[in-house]
């Protein structure tokens, strides 16, 4: 619940601030002195609602409502307070009559107030609808004369007279007032006449008016029309060369806002005149064309004259921005592109399978953009893990096969601030029984003419462990992770670099698996359980109970890492070493070596060898012993059958090939075989695995 409270604070309090800004922007005479207090009270009360403190929430809201009497608060603020009271009464205390009364009071204050979807239940929605019906619609229903104009317009549209259809409705609403059915019919007329943008605008108004008139049928029809128009409306996408600057775009003589130029631009079916002006270097350039398109067509227009690189001003601009001699030479070699903006994007599919009946398929996508000369980079990735397994670690006998999906995304970026580079990153991973979130910051700087680069990074993770299919309110374990990385890269010579560093990770929280049961044995039977025992042997010798896994709730982990990379004429070799120790008594060493060979400009081959060995944690037992006492069985305080906590040794041998399909497009295939031997585990003696990855990458300067 503590985490829920933090989340509510994170989202509702900023919302309260923005709502207050919306009030005060209208002018000082339109906002009450207590508006801010009222909105914050709503946010705090909903925190208490989430925590089940209903009476405390109601008390806070009642106090806020009293403070908001008269001109102290805007009516819309009092309406929000009343809506919050209704939610607490209805969804919390199950008093729907009291909720309805609060909703009625809210609607009297502000007829346009709505029930927030994040709190809405079916009962609350029904209660809110009843409250609205008691007070009547926010807008008056259409008159007979108005509905007669709709009938006339329908007849005109049936005769394919969409212009007459429009004129009938526009004339009626000009003399009386706008209404939902009239706006919807007008949108249909405009749709028939090819005025799709105007139709979408009127259909959106029709949906709003329908809600205020309590006319659900018209509202649903307006939303359906909006969805159709979204599909039918053509779009124009402009491809503007990166070498252009000071770009101005007009479509049919109307200037396109700069923030919309790179987005698909909606347009009615027919023809469009596209004009673009700008500079290529210091020289003016322009483009003009007329394009034709039909409903639903999405066209792309390449705004270029075909004379890229036709002048040398771009070269001089690049050289002025260059920070090193290498940057300046690149400007000359590339005709001015220099080390400017580079876009990288790729898709990857990874596959893993092993002899323990585990299969993982992981499609992934990533994209990044960087400008080393300007000193910034930004990127993101998204991955889906589809896991299928029947692990013998989960229960005392082998579990049935199960399938699971994990979704993970990350964003990162860095930028230069004087001599320092600051990086920010964030990541989220969602599984049926685990939620992981992390944010971090890193700082580095170049010393001794960029020959020495120290780096310091800090990440904090907020994880939630649960059971699949079980709400967090029923079962959850919060896990907090602090990670500190420090290192320095050393340029030994133009073809060799060395990196050394260390990592410290502090973990707080119970990471025990909620469905991993640990078999218990007597001292006599424990000695008879062999390494790699089958489930039948375990079942025959274990005691009739198996408690859940229990791990220590704190763990500090430390590692030292080193890397060296050397480039020769056509080959590159790289070696990594990592030594590890933690407060659970586990120690490990990992050695990694990679070799790359450039067959030609298009093809690179590589190989990979990895060896790791580790000891078990200090509470590890192949077979845990339970002792009997007068009060029952006593089991070890800490216990686990997680094979990754036991002593093991592993090898990885792999190969990869990377081939340039085009100047900006490459493909890579990676294949690796894995072997692990477990020195002291009851269910598993060893594991063979196969990992493959296929990557398609785009890189554009």
Give the tags:
16-stranded antiparallel barrel; 701 residues; alpha+beta; four-stranded antiparallel beta sheet
**Strand order of the main beta sheet, please?**
8-9-10-11-12-13-14-15-16-18-19-20-21-25-26-27
Strand percentage lies at 35-45%
Calculate Rg over CA atoms: 33 Å
Q: Strand count, sense and closure of the main sheet? A: 16 strands, antiparallel, barrel
Low-confidence segments: 1-30, 305-326, 331-339, 394-399
Globally, the shape reads: globular
Termini distance? 49 Å
Calculate the mean pLDDT score and round it. Answer: 83
Number of helices: 15
Compose a concise summary of this entry:
The chain is α+β, with helices and mostly antiparallel strands and 701 residues long. It has 15 helices and 27 strands. The radius of gyration is 33 Å and the shape is globular.
Can you walk through the features of this model?
This protein has 701 residues and is of the alpha+beta class. The protein is 29% helix and 39% strand. The two termini are 49 Å apart.
Topology:
Elements: H1 2-25, H2 35-50, H3 54-67, H4 75-92, H5 96-109, H6 122-135, H7 144-158, H8 162-175, H9 180-192, H10 196-212, H11 216-232, E1 235-239, E2 244-251, E3 254-255, E4 265-266, E5 270-280, E6 283-293, E7 298-302, H12 313-321, H13 325-333, E8 342-354, E9 359-371, E10 376-389, E11 402-417, E12 420-431, E13 434-445, E14 452-465, E15 477-493, E16 496-508, E17 520-521, H14 523-526, H15 535-541, E18 554-567, E19 571-582, E20 587-598, E21 603-614, E22 624-625, E23 627-629, E24 632-634, E25 648-660, E26 665-678, E27 686-700
Parallel strand pairs: 1-7, 17-22
Antiparallel strand pairs: 1-4, 2-3, 2-5, 5-6, 8-9, 8-27, 9-10, 10-11, 11-12, 12-13, 13-14, 14-15, 15-16, 16-18, 18-19, 19-20, 20-21, 21-25, 23-24, 25-26, 26-27
